[in-house]
Structure formats: C-alpha cells, structure tokens
Inverse folding.
C-alpha cells in the first residue's frame, strides 16, 4: 500500500521579498547613506588625531574616541521600526520643534481679543498653530497632490475568505497575491482602517420604499429587516473595516511637469486591480469625491460613516442570506 500523499494538504509557501524598497548596498553590507556617515565620521576622527598627536598619546586618543565612534556606528547602522536611527533622530528633533497644539485654520490663527486679561493669556500658554495637512488638494481624476512628496492614487479592496478554501485554492490565491507584490514598481501601501457605521439612513430607506415591493411577503420582510437595522443602529458601537490600496509616485524631478506622476499613479492602481483580480480581490479606484470623503473621514475618525443605500429587494435578499 502506498503511503498517503502528505503534500496535498501541506501549507503552500511562496517567495515574497521582505523589503522591496530596501536601498542598494554600495560597499559590502553598507548602503550609500551608511557609507557616507561612516566615511565622514572616520575623516573627522582621523583629523582629530592628526591635530592632537603632538600632545596626546595615541592610546589615550583611542580611549577618548571609542564612545564617539560607537555612537556614530549605532546611528549609522541601527534601525528602529524599519527606519534608520539617523532619520529617526532628525524626525524626533523636527517633532520637538513643532507646535504641539494645531488647529484647522487656513486663514491663520487670530490673536486673542484685547478684552482678555493678560494673566489669562499667559495661563493659556502659547497660541495654537495653523495645521498644515500633508496634501495640497485632489485633482479631478481623484489623485492626491502630496506637494513635495509626489502624488497618490487610492482604491478600495474587497476581502477573501482564505481559511475556508481548499489547499489548491489557497495556493492559487497566495501565488496571485505574490505575483502582484513582486510586480510593484513604486511605494504601495495597504491601509486597514476601522470606522463607525450609521445604519439609520438605510433603515429609513427600507421603511419608505417597502410599500413599493410587488408582494406583501417581500414588504413584510423588508420592514422586519429595517427594524433589525434600526435596533443595531441604537447600539452605537458598530464598526466597519475598510481596506484601501494607496499607490504613490515620487515627486517629479526639476524640469518635468509637476503633475506628471498623477497619470502614472492611476495606471499603477489599474495594474493592481488587474493583478489582484486573479486573487479574487476587487480593487475599485476612487474618484475625486470618494477621495475627499475618505480624507475627511480619516481626519474625523469619530464621525459615523453612512452605509451605501440599496433597494429594498437587495437589502431583503442580503438579510435572507445572512
């Protein structure tokens, strides 16, 4: 009797790059940035030894610069949350110089009225600064203008029930998703965000249009489903999950039209939609209005998001399937 085939139910593995945007190595394991930092530090330390050698012993100088060399090596070679420690330090310094309280005031923050006592103004602390959003508007094609950071196009993605698939189906889904990852040519992000859902508009629509259904049983089912949705809306703790694909193009080089990357960003979203279709994932590109709603919802996460309205027949069929 032949032994059972253990490879049929074995988990499928595929090779996916761990970091597709990893910088190239210039000198051994060091990148160009690390090589530049270490080379500059080495020249500075050598210059210090050359200047102090007439009155300092070499061994004493070595013991003196060991902590400095260690700090520079840690700064050049260390990482925190996949970010180099040098960039992390510069970001921390920029954060400390940024005003802590910021408000949405495109016209500027007006000063306090003169009737406010000076001691109250002193107790309130420094005035808030105007908030500057990290984008410079949305084009008519639905592309975010990130000013100095380029352009970004977005699309919403559906989900796939992976656990209930057979081993062969899981293998096909994983291979299709891996092909898309290996085909990326620019910065790409998969954002998973949770938002509150407001079912009240959908329940009201079902109650208003239930009478137009062709059969009394359908009308009764629509009204029952509307009451069910209204009861869910009363809880106030309904959360929905949204997956957003963001394709960003770097800022244009000098001499190139500013919005040249917008077309490329939309093209990359379309290519992702075609590639993810093989993994049974539907990627729907967002237009200008949908991008504006998404950015507004991201800036106001506590605002309930209304569910898309549907006809009573669709809602009743979905309720029956549930």
């Amino acid at each position: 009797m032949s032994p059972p085939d253990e490879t049929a139910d074995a988990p499928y593995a595929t090779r996916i790059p761990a970091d597709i945007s990893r910088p190239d190595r210039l000198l051994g394991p060091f990148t160009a940035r690390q090589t530049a930092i270490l080379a500059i530090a080495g020249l500075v330390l050598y210059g210090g030894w050359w200047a102090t050698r007439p009155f300092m012993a070499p061994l004493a100088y070595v013991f003196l610069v060991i902590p400095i060399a260690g700090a520079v090596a840690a700064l050049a070679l260390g990482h925190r949350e996949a970010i180099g420690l040098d960039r992390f330090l510069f970001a921390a310094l920029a954060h400390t110089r940024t005003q802590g309280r910021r408000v949405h005031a495109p016209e500027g923050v007006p000063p306090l009225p003169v009737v406010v006592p000076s001691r109250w103004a002193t107790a309130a602390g420094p005035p808030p600064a105007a908030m500057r959003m990290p984008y410079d508007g949305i084009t008519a094609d639905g592309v975010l203008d990130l000013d100095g950071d380029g352009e970004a196009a977005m699309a919403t993605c559906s989900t796939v029930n992976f656990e209930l698939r057979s081993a062969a189906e899981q293998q096909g889904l994983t291979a299709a998703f891996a092909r898309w990852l290996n085909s990326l040519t620019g910065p790409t992000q998969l954002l998973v965000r949770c938002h509150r859902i407001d079912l009240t508009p959908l329940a009201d629509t079902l109650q208003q249009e239930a009478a137009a259904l062709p059969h009394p049983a359908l009308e009764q089912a629509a009204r029952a489903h509307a009451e069910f949705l209204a009861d869910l809306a009363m809880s106030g703790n309904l959360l929905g999950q949204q997956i957003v694909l963001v394709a960003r193009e770097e800022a244009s080089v000098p001499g190139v039209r500013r919005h040249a990357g917008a077309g490329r960003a939309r093209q990359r979203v379309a290519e992702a939609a075609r590639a993810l279709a093989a993994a049974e994932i539907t990627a729907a590109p967002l237009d200008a209005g949908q991008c504006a709603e998404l950015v507004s919802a991201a800036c106001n996460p506590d605002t309930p998001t209304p569910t898309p309205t549907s006809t009573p027949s669709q809602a009743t069929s979905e309720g029956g399937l549930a």
DSSP finds ten helices and twelve strands in the chain. The longest strand covers residues 188-198. Residues 25-96 form one domain.
